[in-house]
Amino acid sequence: MEKKPQFSGPRRPMGGGGSRPGMRGRKGLQRDTRDPYVINEHIRAREVRLVGDNVEQGIYPLHQALKIAEQQELDLIEISPNAEPPVCRILDYQKFLYQQKKRQKEQKAKAAKVVVKEIRFGPQTDDHDYNFKLKHAMGFLKEGSKVKAYVFFRGRSILFKEQGEVLLLRFANDLEEYGKVEMMPVLEGKRMTIMLTPLKAPAKKEAPAKERSEKAPKAEKQEKAEEASEE
Fold first, then answer.
1. Are 122 and 133 in contact (CB under 8 A)?
2. Reduced 3-state DSSP string for the chain
3. pLDDT of 68-117, one tens digit each?
4. Is the pTM of this model over 0.85?
5. How confident is the model at residue 224 (pLDDT cuts 50, 70, 90)?
6. Which domains does the chain have, with CATH numbers?
7. Which of 15, 89, 137, 189 sits at a 20 to 30 Å CA gap from 161?
8. Could you tell me the sign of the dihedral formed by the alpha carbons of 54, 56, 62, 67, in that order?
9. Is 185 exposed, middle or buried (0-12, 13-18, 19+ CB in 10 A)?
């Protein structure tokens, strides 16, 4: 007798759907080594300190902290592994990573690149050369760059190191309206160096309302007079 093939209906895909918050890092799943944080069952501490707004803060056994995270369908994230006990938060891990990356980008955007301009002197620089370099340093500080000025000593000119220090201090004093001394003169090998950092530009003061109102009619009268002369 010929056997008929049995049909058991459509098969469900293996493994179920995608992972949900609170389900990442469970037993049987390997931790991705690229993850910057240890989460859920991959946390090895016996107890953890829970912090955050969505929990009662305190120290919990790991199994209890995991249970709280699972009840909220979120992840237990170890944010300070070197603390005793480790500090954890209960959050959606993917959202947490997104916020961390966003914060890092904002910090990089705010961090301005520091430009350092170098000015070189000899121990016996004449006034013409000094004033020329002083003018350049003023421009550098105005544009927001740091100025690293140094006196280079060749051979026996190292005997004039006191003269080089006086020169650099004079240089800093002449630039006090544009920059402040970040590092006093220091002798390193054949160089004596001083570092100046730019002062913040003072905010422009807005003219008082009364003064502005007095200026406005004068400007209108002048415009009308100019128009009349053109006609």
1. no
2. CCCCCCCCCCCCCCCCCCCCCCCCCCCCCCCCCCCCCEEHHHCCCCEEEEECCCCCCEEEEHHHHHHHHHHCCCEEEEEECCCCCCEEEEECHHHHHHHHHHHHHHHHHHCCCCCEEEEEECCCCCHHHHHHHHHHHHHHHHCCCEEEEEEECCHHHHHHHHHHHHHHHHHHHHCCCCEEEEEEEEEECCEEEEEEEECCCCCCCCCCHHHHHHHHHHHHHHHHHHHHHHC
3. 999 999 999 999 999 999 999 999 999 999 999 998 888 877 666 778 99
4. no
5. low
6. 38-101 (3.10.20.80), 116-198 (3.30.110.10)
7. 137
8. negative
9. buried
Q: Which residue has the tokens 């004596």?
A: 192
**Tokens found for residue 230:** 């053109």
Tokens linked to 71: 């009840």
Which residue is listed with tokens 């992972």? 19
Q: Which two tokens stand for residue 139?
A: 């421009």
